[in-house]
Every structure is written in structure tokens, then in C-alpha cells.
From TrEMBL:
PANTHER family: HTH-TYPE TRANSCRIPTIONAL REPRESSOR PURR-RELATED, LACI-RELATED TRANSCRIPTIONAL REPRESSOR. It comes from Paradevosia tibetensis. SMART domains: HTH_LACI (SM00354). This is LacI family transcriptional regulator. Gene3D superfamilies: 3.40.50.2300, lambda repressor-like DNA-binding domains. Keywords: DNA-binding, Repressor, Transcription, Transcription regulation. CDD domains: HTH_LacI, PBP1_LacI_sugar_binding-like. InterPro entries: HTH_LacI, LacI/GalR-like_sensor, Lambda_DNA-bd_dom_sf, Peripla_BP_I.
Amino acid sequence: MDKSRNRRPTIIDVAEHAGVSKSTVARVLAGSSSISEDARDRVMKAVAATGYERNHLAVGMRSGRSGLLGIVIPDITNPFWAGVARGAQDRAAEHNISLLVFSSDWDAGKEARHLRALRQARVDGAIINPVADNFDDLSRFGLPFVFIGSSAERFSDVSSVGSDIAQAVRLGMEHLFSRGHTRPAFILGPRSRLARARFLRTVHDFCVERDIDPAVLAMEDAEYTVEGGKAAMERLLARRGRGYLSVFAANDLMALGAMMAVREAGLSCPEDVSILGFDGIPAGAFAWPGLTTIEKPSREIGVRAVDCLLDEIAGRPEHGRVYMPCRLIERGSLADLTATAPKMVAAGR
């Protein structure tokens, strides 16, 4: 077996192929202007022919910059967080920077390991959705960083980017009420998540403003997954008895799981049950009926986070908390109860 096929091309290979010295190759790759056009052309052709790639870690050790950023998101399988990562990757690429992506799975231990790996890789900075309250001790993190997501609001001294949850939930509540859904039920996230508290606080304030006792509204906690939403909807259906049911789910995966539970109960959406989602993931458009939802700007959050991080790396002033507005996407999962009387059905039939 030819072992040379498994050897990475070196700067010496490029120099031999171009017929120039190793130092000439180094100066060309460094962008030096004191190189003849002929030599520069030969070196670049040799780079392409040999497949040579620069060792960015070695370059970074000399220049102090690696040309790498990192991002740690909680769940890469959730399309919302995948959208955040894609936006960050696209913006980084515009600056000729590569992005390393890690998923913490909402696990503080995994988050800590990923952050150590980023430091060891000498990335120039990191974008993080913090899982733990202490976050690996901010005072000794030793790397420029920006937070994303609702959890970031726990850290008022750190620049962060996230959806405007209060604006988004209020937008959802206003839409529900405008369609006659004045006593919706809620599928919320785990009690340990700050997003749940922010969501619930906005619902509470909205109801109080309209002289509605929030305590009369049915609520179920669940994981932010399809399975969690399905199980929560099954519990809501079991306790509902007879009557029309409207549900506001705290993310689209849970909303899609709730739609599954409705179908399995022999009911129809929105004839028997209306469902409003939260996130705006693409899968909602392909559900039947299409999922009405509040869309959070996932890609834009990633883009803005990279912009903020590059400012942090450059030593420019902190941005504080950047709130990104959300918008309503109206499809078919939410009935207009002001136009037609809902069909009264037994929820458990």
C-alpha cells in the first residue's frame, strides 16, 4: 500500500512542485506583497495541485487568531437550534471563519466538556446557550463569548441574543383571544427552564389585564419534544371531559406531538381541538392541518450572535441583551370560534 496517499501535503511539497523555496511559499500564503506575480501564480497552482491546506492551529499560535469560532447549542436535532447554528455558520463564513458546532443535550456536564474542547482548539470565541446557572465560572472562562437563548437572561453582565419571549407569547395570546379562544390550555416546558417562567409570566400578566384568573387555565409541563407534547396533550384530553379545547404549546415539537395525540383520540384539529405552536420550525408547514405558530427568528439569532461575538473579540463595547422580535404564521390548526360555534365532543371518545 502506498503510504504517501495517507500523508498530508506539506509546505515543502508545495515548494518542490512550484520550484521555489519554502520561505517563498510561506510569504505567498501569508499575503506578502513583496513577491513577484510569476512566483505567486506558481505557488497557488502548486497549492491546488498538491491539495495543501494550512495548519490553522499553527498559524493561530503565531498570529494569536485561529480563524475558528465555536457554538454550543442544547439540541442539534431540534430544527430551531439547527437554524440558529446555520445562521451563525453562514455569517462566520462571510468573514472567512469556520464554526465548530456542539450539542449539549441540556446536560451541564456535556456543556463543560464541549467548552474545554473549544478552549483546547484555541477558538477565537464561542456562542453558548448556557445550561448551568454557574456556567463554568464566568470569571475564569478565558475566552470571548456571547450567550444565546432565554437561559442567557440569568447573566445580566454578558452580551446575549435571543427571541423576545414576552413579545412572542403576548402575540400568541392576542391571536387566540381574537379568534375566540379565551380559556386556552397550555403545554409548558420543564420547571427548571427559564423560558418556561418567562412564558408563564407573560400569560399571567395578559390574563390579569383582562380580569381573567390565570389559575383557572389548564397547564401541563413536558419536555420540549414530540413525545413530551403528545403525553401532555393526552393528559389534557383525559381531564377535559366534554367541550372544545384550545392549546398553546411552548414549542412546535410539543405542538406536533399534541396533534398526534388528538388524532389518536379520534378527534380532529381544528374541528375539535385548536393548537397554537411556538418556534416556527419548517415541519409545522407540512403537518395536516398546517401548524399555526409564533415564529422565532432562529437564523437571525445565529447571525446576530456572530456579529456580537466578533465585536467582543475586537474589544468593542458589550451589547447587553439583544431581543429579536417574533411573528405569527397562520395556517390551519387554529379555528376561528368567533365565526362558527365549535362542535361539542367528548374528549376521550
